[in-house]
């Protein structure tokens, strides 16, 4: 019966187990990781590459079917023990979670390519590391003012740092949104910037006319001409990198005690802006301002499907935040 079924499907027993009657060996980590790295989005590759390199350092010659649940637990603890210590670090808990997810990503592709059966995936038999509650919170206005003042008066490029801070305060964007910003993402007529952030999500975010003019001037004076040119640039014209953020907040921590002791970073400004928007304009506008998708868990009920803020409402919130009129804040559709 089985042979008849295979015959109808056009599949021979040899194709299932290999020409020599033996199932083909599964790829090693050294062979499989580059395949997966080339198949995932850039953001995923950037996030997981550190942990894939850790796997290659110890498992390069091991086949993907040779990993046991105890090996997964070892990797989790290894990631925690070898994490790069940062001001905002939380004892390696995030590294442990990312290492687990990086390994699970590999096996998800292995299952998808029918290289391994789902029940043989070792990460399915290990409890995912618990996510530690974030200690980020909204900052008070006085501290935000002090941060902006110190950034504007210190360092080797205070104009860049001040512009970065204003951009993040106004837009509540993540780092990636600023680093990915290109000239073609600036709409000076409607005062909108296109943000490309995690999850490959693109959205148009209102900015004040003042910020828009500064973004254009900054990009042009530092050599941006092509539509695909990065907006944020160093003095020498090179596109901005993550290192500027680390340098900025390390310097701010040398001057402001709260920044140093609490490990404040740019993401705290996102919390600050979104908290103010939510308190002043409600949940729907804050969600749109943040660029969050509609909750898939139906946590807020069916009503959440209908309560969606428009870009005009986001522009109204921005106008109240900055004290500047915005071309979309009058109720006109974008």
TrEMBL record:
InterPro entries: DNA_brk_join_enz (IPR011010), Integrase-like_cat_sf (IPR013762), Integrase_catalytic (IPR002104), Integrase_recombinase_N (IPR010998), Tyrosine_recombinase_XerCD (IPR050090). Residues 134-319 form the Tyr recombinase domain. CDD domains: DNA_BRE_C. Keywords: DNA recombination, DNA-binding. GO terms for biological process: DNA integration; DNA recombination. It comes from the Bacteria. Gene3D superfamilies: 1.10.150.130, Intergrase catalytic core. GO terms for molecular function: DNA binding. Belongs to the 'phage' integrase family. This is Site-specific integrase.
